[in-house]
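Team,

Forwarding the record for the chain on the shared tracking sheet. I've put the sequence and predicted structure together so nobody has to dig through attachments.
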Amino acid sequence: MREVQVTPVPLERLASLLTPDRADRLLEYQRRAERGLARRTVWNINSTGEGGGVAEMLRALLAYARGAGIDIRWLVLDGNPEFFAVTKRIHNRLHGDAGDGGALDDAARVAYLDVQARNLETLERLVRPGDIVLLHDPQTAGLAANLRAKGAYVVWRCHVGIDEQNALTREAWTFLRDLVAPAHAVIFSRSQFAPDWFDRQWLRVIPPSLDPFSPKNVELAPDDVATLVARCHRTDDGPPPPADSRTVLQVSRWDRLKDMSGLLAAFAQNARTLPDDVHLVLAGPQTDGVQDDPEATAVLAGCRELRSGLEPGIRARVHLLSLPMADVEDNARMVNALQRHASVVVQKSLAEGFGLTVTEPMWKGRPVVASAVGGIRDQIEDGVSGLLLQDPRDHAELVAALRRTLEDPELSLQLGKAARERIRDRYLADRHLIQYVELFEELLEDGARAVRPD
């Protein structure tokens, strides 16, 4: 288990973007947090410090919390390939997908719990009675019982799920149920993601948020955008797009549920019906840079194979970027530039807990075309702040939405402007931090109450 170091950032920086009333409310909650959390540590535990929305969100939120005077720390658990194969299996099933088809049986449980036990050896030396521990996603659920027994307040946050449960989601929840039951409270991005056996008194809906000042979202000068985009394209197997071309972009992990290959196939099959200056760019992290995603290498390889089979004229308009992860901030700036450069940003997910890769381009004023799944439904008002795909597997619907934005500059401008305002209103970090403070206050006032099945 390792600790991720986060540099404090003063809350006043965030407050500078808010209306006076919102800024005053944020600073009032800062004072409340300082009083209520004095002499306590707030621990965040997840499975990776780099790559993916959870790590990015933690980096921003912890920076502000530390800047507000809260003793808050971030630990990344130590896993092995067997463990991450099991947790990826759980992740896929929580999205209603069979994944690798492997079993969540006794052997899987042993592989899972062995890693939990090793990590608990470190945690039990660090966590004190009265501390608050935020456990993120299925990888950490098995830590809840021991941390509760030690006298900590335990909150389990699940960032994934689908609105309608099926046999696969129920199988995953059967695996997790007794592991998360000891938590004092649980957090989901949407209430629909939670099975009905969670105690609704201690279930909170807290959507993710965006930090406008992070390297991924900070304003960039046009020259910096051009330079960074050129660097990104050095990771491509082929030549970069012409300087005056337009790009359709998707940024995400190389995860089957993000359906990068589906977007590639849809574009390739319909490229001749789109303006011939339009190129497709699929960008994701280097596959060895995200330790908790064992499927990434195969997904990227599948996209490369699909592109290699295209006729040369279409292949030249498809670009696969594998962005380096050695420097997290540099990686974030590359993504920032790609999103700012894009004519249209797509998120063709088959399932999505929330989708910061939707929030980010919306903040940058880009028109977004995204699947009407999970938390994306909450972010985008269809036809107002973006375009929603009712069936993410329908290539004709996707291409029609792309053509609509590419051929109507006024519509693209209106969608982008409304998108930025929606993120400012609903998805900045002040709302997120305030919701955490309110939950922590309730936990500390009411004492230890378990989230238990009926």
